[in-house]
Write a structure and sequence with these properties.
The complex is a heterodimer of chains A (about 260) and B (about 60). Chain A is an alpha/beta fold. Chain A has helices spanning about 25-35, 50-60, 75-90, 110-120, 135-145, 165-175, 190-195, 205-210, 215-235; strands spanning about 1-5, 5-10, 15, 35-45, 65-70, 95, 125-130, 150, 180-185, 200-205. Chain B is mainly beta and about 60 residues long. The interface between A and B is medium-sized, with 40 and 26 residues.
Amino acid sequence: MVNFYGKTFTSRLLIGTALYPSPAIMQNAIRSSGSEIVTVSLRREAAGGKTGDAFWSLIRELGVTVLPNTAGCRSVREAVTTAKLARELFGTSWIKLEVIADNDTLQPDVVGLVEAADILIKDGFEVFPYCTEDLSVAMRLVDAGCKVVMPWAAPIGSAKGIINPDALKLLRDRLPDITLVVDAGLGAPSHAARALELGYDAVLLNTAIAKAADPVAMAHAFRQGVEAGRAAFEAGLMEARDFASPSTPVVGTPFWHAVS
Amino acid sequence: MRVIINGEAREIASMSVDALLGELDYEGTHFAVAVNYDVLPKSRWAETQLKSGDEIEIITPRQGG
């Protein structure tokens, strides 16, 4: 079981709701993924529009827990206000906190992120911060009161997988009591498995499923990747080594003789 | 009076948030509203008076990652 702010879940795969070919495929992909937590966003509604209502009813049919995000926010003020709007709209104190520094890489503004997290936690929010793999930033977020930290694997939507495994491993080692989620940049189920093998508690992804040729089948593949990675972590992976070590017993090898 | 709604300058007749949503024909039920970065719970929409130059955000659930 994985714990997010005192609530426990079986699935270690958090899934986004954007970019699917159709609303029906979105629903089926989410069901196929086994996810119990989905991310949603907030956007301006055009006058007279009912777009939000239609989308919201699709999500409610799924019976999942909703994690609203502050995607697109570029300042602390925007992110804090968006989080408060999300709390009002979705009736949850959970917020996936994003403060973006750069349009091309969607690099998190880690300075603004820590500031916004501090403000929101003091206001009663349970913050899921989207951050880089930098240890000092993660420690500042924990100091501010975050019980969950979500470093990227690679830039959002890039599908590159884990670019800096050593740094992610360091975060896991140094923050053993924090729920760690690899968020963004995963492209294949093997990437997700790797994150879980490193001891990460969960992964959050969207594009790799939504943009697959068959999102519903890919959602299932990611589910299996996450399950395999977690099972491997729990089973205890052996350490890598530099030289070969025969798996077949040497003693009793036919024609064996010592080489001088 | 002139206000900014979702980033666009508009001339409105309504004096309260509640009335404004009616004036602009918002038909849905799931909205959140902020005026000048201050989020207003639904319970305050009727009592909150608007003034010229206010920045109003009307937002709704949408797909996200």
